[in-house]
Amino acid sequence: MSSLVVNTNISAIQAYDNLNATNSALSTAISRLSSGLQIQTAADNPAGYVVSQQLLAESNGYGVDIQNAQNGISMIQTADGALGQITSILQTMNQLALQAANGTTSPSADAADQAEFVQLQNEIDQIANSTNFAGQQLLNLSGASATITFQVGTGNNGVSQVGVTFSSATTTALGVASTSVSISGVASAQAAISAIASALASVNSIEGSLGAYQNEFQAIIANLTVGQQNMTASYSRIVDVNMAQEMTQFTTDQILMQSGVAMLSQAQQEPSLVLKLLT
Q1: Is residue 233 domain-shared with residue 247, that is, in the same domain?
Q2: Residue 124 vs residues 49, 101, 120, 241: alpha-carbon distances, Å
Q3: How far apart are CA 66 and CA 57, in angstroms?
Q4: pTM of the entire structure?
Q5: Is residue 131 in a domain?
Q6: What is the residue range of 250's domain?
Q7: What is the number of domains present in the chain?
Q8: Which ranges of the chain does DSSP label H, i.e. alpha helix?
Q9: pLDDT tens, residue by residue, 101-146
Q10: What is the pLDDT of residues 243-273, one digit of tens each?
């Protein structure tokens, strides 16, 4: 049994300590409920904070990788759309060559066909020269082909990168330039048929290669999306607060706070009992 003293009120000190602890817990609960986070700074949970920041960095990285892969698909689709137009033009050129190779048309008709043939050749070059993505030429390259690298992973290695090879599709690259191919005469038209067939095969090969790259990017995006979802879920489990659980704790802390204030008030009245001994 403790002594009845005036100078040191042990009961009040204990009540104050409990009230201070309850106030700290209540402040933490309010902070978590208002922010929705159980880890706001490294002081809240040093280990959890470090892990959560790593997960957040990886999740953000996945988001950028997905965007990079989507840009790759957009670039490929830009080139593929232009190649489709070139294919259509080559088909028309082939029809004109077949017509000119027949040898039964009039000179005036042959001249008209040749003029149209030249315009189509020019149109192919116009498409090849104007097809670009973000300033990057796709079908008129300094060489026969060029490889563009896309970062689609979080590492600085070959596994995280995809190189897409784009090939030139000018009339020169396809072998149907106006300086070497024409339909002004049966022999020339016959030679043009073979050149156009070769050009169509080249364009089809380029389109097939780009289609394979597009499928690869789509598979990468699907994989990265799942990875990002898993990373985000892991981050949420560490950082986000369970609102129902925290609200329950908040209610408990509120009750303890009120009872703590009442008990501190009662404890502070104990020394006044000494006055009864002095009367």
Answers
A1: no
A2: 58, 22, 6, 61
A3: 14
A4: 0.77
A5: yes
A6: 10-36+242-277
A7: 2
A8: 10-35, 46-101, 107-130, 171-174, 186-239, 243-268, 274-277
A9: 987 767 888 899 999 999 999 999 999 999 999 889 999 988 888 9
A10: 898 899 889 988 988 888 888 888 777 777 7
